[in-house]
Design a protein that fits this description.
Length: 428
């Protein structure tokens, strides 16, 4: 009998499928190894910017430069990429005290000094100003409005810079279609109210993983990225081991589009029929709520009322207070929750917007899928508060499935966090 597996932080978890199960998909994103170092890949990408002139053309000794980097929730190797950019600022005569590096947190929890040192490297931390974005800061600057007139402000240091650079990775995203590109600005360095309002009002209007054509969440993010004046967007393409295999640099929209097509080719899988059961891992994510991002993949791959087994490493754990809140709201109407969020009535005021958005997302998933979580980090009781079943291994989860599912069509996503079923199916 063929052994199947999914990835997790400490290797692979193997399992056997029953004789009545038919595998209709077993998709691991293209798993090529890098042909060049990260520095070489970045240098090549910067030499051929898409839709923009080389960044060297914008740099001069008087320039004030801001570099936006993503935070620890993303696998972008900032420590290896930043020196390539900073070599260019030095070559142009820009002194270190005219360069700011901002961790584009959005509304995520701030990174500690130790975490920032680890992310950017000791030399860079000691030489340049590196700080977290504060989405509640009073000095943020309005740069545009959403299409319905809601104002959007951004980090004041970023807004006033002469040269603006963003560095991130392009991964499938449950609402924006894909991460990277203009998302380094919105929500990366935007103000809390704009992030809350944008996410709550646009998510029901096409906000689904992989969708960039009829998705207001994506379109408004792109508009804000354009309005921000970002001069250079660096978009990393990763393999399933979180290694950079390619990069596209250039215009905030055009370079992002080009990178998305590379990710579609690497991560996308065509499905001609619905699965009864999806088995997937949260890899490469290992923090809450990001580890839940593969659930939309299961939704896209499965029939309504189907089953999903999610293998989840949650290294940070899940705060008890958040678990209790999720348990209290997950049966509520998700659209009403989003309307409340748009009015500023968050389940956890001041908490990261993505954690608040996990509530309507979980409410929708519970209506569409029966999810069993396989985790050593989350107890059966805590999985129950999320609305999930629990099993210690995938094999255990398979053994307790209803009989009709044991003769099922199965879709397997060994790296669910970076897999992409190429189907359009709205959440709402």
């Amino acid at each position: 009998m063929e052994k199947h597996w999914v990835l997790r932080g400490d290797g692979k978890e193997y399992f056997d499928l029953g004789p009545g199960m038919k595998v209709i998909c077993n998709h691991l994103p293209v798993d090529v190894s890098p042909e060049r170092t990260v520095a070489e890949t970045m240098a090549e990408s910067l030499s051929r910017p898409v839709g923009a002139s080389p960044i060297e053309h914008k740099l001069d000794p008087s320039a004030r430069v801001v570099i936006l980097i993503d935070d620890k929730t993303r696998p972008t190797p900032q420590k290896e990429i930043l020196p390539v950019i900073l070599d260019r600022t030095r070559a142009a005569g820009v002194p270190p005290d005219q360069v700011d590096i901002i961790v584009a947190l959005g509304t995520h929890f701030p990174m500690t000094e130790h975490e920032i040192r680890e992310r950017v490297g000791e030399d860079i931390f000691e030489t340049y100003r590196v700080r977290n974005h504060d989405s509640t800061a009073a000095d943020q600057v309005k740069i545009c409005e959403l299409s319905d007139g809601f104002p959007v402000k951004v980090n004041a240091t970023f807004a006033s810079a002469d040269v603006k650079i963003g560095i991130s990775s392009v991964l499938p995203h449950p609402f924006n279609g894909f991460g990277g590109g203009p998302k380094i600005v919105m929500p990366g360095v935007a103000d809390y109210d704009a992030i809350r309002y944008h996410h709550a009002t646009t998510m029901p209007k096409g906000g689904v993983v992989g969708n960039t054509t009829t998705n207001l969440f994506h379109d408004e993010t792109a508009r804000i990225g354009l309005a921000s004046g970002l001069d250079l967007s660096i978009n990393c393409v990763l393999n399933s081991r979180e290694e950079v295999i390619d990069a596209v640099s250039g215009h905030v929209i055009e370079a992002h589009k080009a990178a998305i097509e590379k990710v579609r080719a690497a991560c996308g899988v065509s499905l001609s029929e619905d699965a009864d059961l999806a088995i997937l891992s949260g890899y490469p994510y290992n923090m809450f709520p990001h580890v839940l991002k593969p659930i939309p993949m299961a939704f896209l791959a499965s029939k309504r009322g189907g089953h999903a087994i999610l293998v989840a490493d949650v290294s940070t754990g899940i705060p008890e207070a958040i678990l209790d809140l999720i348990e209290s709201v997950r049966r509520r109407d998700p659209l009403e929750l989003l309307r409340e969020y748009a009015r500023g009535e968050l389940v956890i005021p001041g908490a990261p917007i993505d954690i608040n958005l996990s509530f309507p997302g979980l409410a929708m998933s519970m209506r569409m899928l029966n999810v069993t979580m396989v985790s050593k980090d989350v107890s059966p009781e805590d999985a129950g508060k999320l609305g999930f079943g629990h099993a210690p291994t995938v094999q255990d989860a398979l053994d307790v499935l209803p009989q009709h599912v044991k003769e099922a069509k199965v879709a397997i996503f060994p790296a669910g966090g970076i897999s992409l079923p190429l189907r359009e199916k709205p959440y709402f």
